[in-house]
Write a structure and sequence with these properties.
Layout (H helix, E strand, L loop, with lengths): L2 H12 L1 E3 H8 L4 H10 L4 E10 L2 E10 L4
Antiparallel strand pairs: 1-3, 2-3
Helix pairs in contact: 1-3
């Protein structure tokens, strides 16, 4: 299975993925590239900016979701 397929399968199974999840679970470091490729293939991927605090500093990261088909 390719890394792009791994990302897609993860979103199908778990609903979403972040860069940290992609790296810690699969050692994938180019998540945004695979998201871009999935979109070019016609997959509807939604991006959500999420906020957290790390060591007292605000951080923003992205979470990617597959749009539910009707």
């Amino acid at each position: 299975m390719t890394q792009k397929q791994t990302v897609y399968e993860h979103m199908l199974t778990h609903g979403s993925i972040t860069s940290m999840e992609a790296f810690s679970l699969y050692k994938i470091t180019r998540l945004s590239e695979y998201i871009h490729e999935l979109r070019k293939e016609g997959k509807s991927v939604i991006t959500s900016d999420e906020r957290t605090t790390v060591n007292g500093r605000p951080c923003i990261y992205r979470r990617y979701f597959l749009k539910k088909e009707k």
